[in-house]
Design brief:
With about 120 residues, this protein is an alpha+beta fold. It has one domain: Nuclear Transport Factor 2, Chain: A, CATH 3.10.450. The protein is built from three helices and six strands, in the order H-H-E-E-H-E-E-E-E. Strand 4 and strand 5 form a beta hairpin. The longest helix is centred in the N-terminal third of the chain and has 20 residues. The radius of gyration is 14 Å and the shape is globular.
Length: about 120
Amino acid sequence: MTASIDLRDYDAIARAIHRYIDGAIAGKGEDMKPAFHEGATIFGYVGEDLLAGPIQLLFDWNDQNGPATELQARIASIDIVNSVAAVRLELKNWTGNRFTDLFTLLKVDGEWKIMNKVFHLHA
């Protein structure tokens, strides 16, 4: 039996993901920070090197990388089960890079927060 999904949850999750995208476009980690839980983590490979740790690594990289004014972003899927969600995001031309991001989100005190980001940097 599938629980009914409140469509407002889809909109709230999409808003969280768009905060992240807006921060990427602006090149400001501080702009994307509200989308994430304070204990969020990031994992993915940059070449052969594993990037793994607290989400602050993303904010710092974003600040150093600068604005991604040509970024194209599409939410490919949102899957919700009660208080948890998974999102797939496709990003093209993040300062010349293409990424596929997979996010897990949790509804914390009534607000959807990104708990984890796992990414693939396309060659």
